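Hi L., both proteins are below.
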Amino acid sequence: MFCPNCGMENDADARYCKGCGRGLSGTGPINSNQDMASILINKKSEGLALILSLILPGLGQIYIDKVSTGILYLVAAIVLGVLTLMLIFVGLIYIALWIYSMYDAYTGAKEYNRYLLEHNGQPPKW
């Protein structure tokens, strides 16, 4: 793929030109200090998302603005927690939900931050 701005050859899956930084797939480069400030202000910590989900499934998703997903994890965790008190084997499902919630929060925060970079600091609309 060749850059329409400077003509430099780039990899076929490149998002930005390695020569001039122009966006190759419909996104532009970070244009100003204001865009960079917006990225820094809106950036989410992958570690914090993971820790929040470690404390309680769903909190990490709420932190990265996936509120409806976070509430679903939270409700599922509460229901499974109550059922675990009655049926021990349900605890295995609770543990699986808990681990997946941590993974989902961590990868979601990474996706959130990547979106910020690609869209000049504008947070995603999940």
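That was the first. Here is the second:
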Amino acid sequence: MAYKITDDCTACGTCIDECPVEAITEGDIYKIDPDICTDCGSCADVCPVDAIEPE
């Protein structure tokens, strides 16, 4: 099960540096590639607006 980024994302960039497999891409709302995500939860742990949750 991969994580997903909700519409609450503020594109702050905090999560990108935390992803060990580089599954997150930038944009107005960041996106997580479910095929690459290893479900580690590192991104969700650091998101300041709680915009990342299990899919």
